[in-house]
Write a structure and sequence with these properties.
heterodimer; A: 261 residues; alpha/beta; Rossmann fold; 2 domains; 9-stranded mixed beta sheet; two-stranded antiparallel sheet; 28% helix; B: 320 residues; 7-stranded parallel beta sheet; 29% helix; globular; binds flavin-adenine dinucleotide; binds adenosine monophosphate
Chain lengths: 261, 320
Amino acid sequence: MEIIVPIKQVPDVALNIKVKDGAVIEEGLSYVISSWDETALEAALQITEDIGGEVTLLTIGPEKAAESLRKGLAMGAHKAIHVKYYDAKQTDSFAYAKILQKVLEGREYDLILAGRQSQDTDAGLTAPMLAEFLDLPQVTNIIRFSNVSNQNMTLYRKGDHATEVLEMELPGVVTVHDTLNEPRLASMRGIMMAKKKPLEEIELEAIGITSEMSGLEGSMTEVLHYDKPESRKEGKNFEGDEKDTVKQALDLLISEAKFLV
Amino acid sequence: MSKILIVAEVKNGEIKKNTLELLSFSKTQGIETGVVLIGSEVTELADILAGQGASKVYLADDSSLEIYNTEQYTALVTDALQQSESNQVWLSSSELGRDLCPRLAARHGVGALSDVTQLEVNGDQVTAQRPCMSTKIIQKCQFSKDGLRVITIRSGFFNAEETTPVSANIVSLSIPAGHAKLKVKEVKVEVSDEVELNEASIIVSAGRGVGGAEGCDFVKPLANDLGAAFGASRAVCDAGWLPHKHQVGQTGTMVTPDFYFAMGISGAIQHLAGMSGSKVIVAVNKDPDAPIFKVADYGIVGDLFKAVPVFREEVSKIKD
Ligand SMILES: Cc1cc2nc3c(=O)[nH]c(=O)nc-3n(C[C@H](O)[C@H](O)[C@H](O)COP(=O)(O)OP(=O)(O)OC[C@H]3O[C@@H](n4cnc5c(N)ncnc54)[C@H](O)[C@@H]3O)c2cc1C
Ligand SMILES: Nc1ncnc2c1ncn2[C@@H]1O[C@H](COP(=O)(O)O)[C@@H](O)[C@H]1O
């Protein structure tokens, strides 16, 4: 089984993120593999450990995105492709999906395992767009899979009111829900081995991506500005015996917030 | 001239609240709006959509459409878009919408704005706000090229008005084939009368502070008393005290009820990302420094095991 895992290097959203004049402040950001992509990678590793094959990481990003590829290789991916993308600002999911399509043209693979959404955009658009561009079936938001062979697999998708069990003929595109697994940590040995694993570097021009196909020009949407969400107004706290505090809170809930009225 | 097409969602033979919200919102914009209604045994729901202002209902009623699937839905919405000559398509940010929106946009060679919480429509110009980076940041964004606007909108941001059904102007769509390489084998519906998280106007949620599955059983009756949905933090679901469908948060269900009760939930960023849009937040937590108190309108510093019975008693008094 040949599996492609497209990963995105993103700011760590667990840390404080500051904005100034409508832009995110770069300073102080620390970059990680988007958490859903780590889940996708873990799933890919489990499949190849089970039935054989190779996992190829693929990222479109600046020089420093290579660190994330090394991390994924240390976790166990077999090889990596780095599409060098120096100015990622104002690139939307549509443009990334188009570039991914170009990179994958002419390559052999059975499965593309991607994140449900990336941690910076929270868009959740790239993978199904890529599936359409490649004319492949898609199953999004999977919480489980089984019966994986080189020809097909069973996927459990978390739908709105039910778990949908689907049988997909490969090749296809799958996105993962984060409860699918707990991504492994890289071992010391893994980190050492990663240095020797193949990391292919591709320049955009080499695959025919012109300036009209990247950045703002290649995108269909644009971000005008970033802001902190409006903070909620100061609440009221009650301390003491629950018999009193719950009643006090409920009184205000009813009189101020029209609870149950 | 702008024209909108809304993709309707149906559950248990009813039009879902998120769809009615989109229709009510489009009505306030005064833009002609059609609805595409897809499903099995859904024809009679067309009049409800017409009552809510749908100028036309593009209908695909077929047993093969009982369960959502990407390929047939994409083809049907595409057909309805062509027939209605709409230049915008609005979907809810449900699992259906999240799966369909990017596929549909790509088929039309355009981009999309997903999970939008505020929308401004000015002819062809669409500007939106959407949370990103775990709701730590809000982006203002717009479509920067001409073409179809594909948008998914979170529920709970517009009010659905009550209306009476009127006879719908129906256009029947022909039923396309499904994807040859993808088959639905079975559907595991968790049948329950529980109120669903993303439809609820009151939610009572349990966190690790409830201490175990028995603790969940202790809090749940309060949800029942209030006719509320029962939610949980991920810690509770990961521990197996409740199934994952109860999880509220960034990777669970994003909720925006009128009232959210957090019982023994610390208020981790990923939990807040999913519920801080609630209109009123009530929190009970032993720890006065718990981050949940930063977003709570009413914070009770105390033991949930003592607080829940008082809530139940007082609520029953109010209801009498
Ligand atoms: C990628 C990722 C995605 C995530 N997505 C989600 C998500 O979608 N939703 C989510 O919820 N979490 C999510 N998490 C997990 C999140 O970071 C927290 O670990 C989780 O929300 C903690 O749950 P909790 O508040 O119930 O537990 P804790 O943080 O352990 O808090 C328990 C609280 O209960 C209080 N308490 C204890 N006993 C009592 C008592 N008797 N009475 C009153 N209070 C009491 C304690 O003071 C404490 O504040 C995610 C994490 C990651 C890394
Ligand atoms: N720059 C990128 N390089 C590689 N993969 C990407 C990139 N951007 C997005 N993806 C993939 O697409 C998924 C969804 O992205 P998004 O549409 O931004 O939510 C991610 O989880 C990745 O798997």
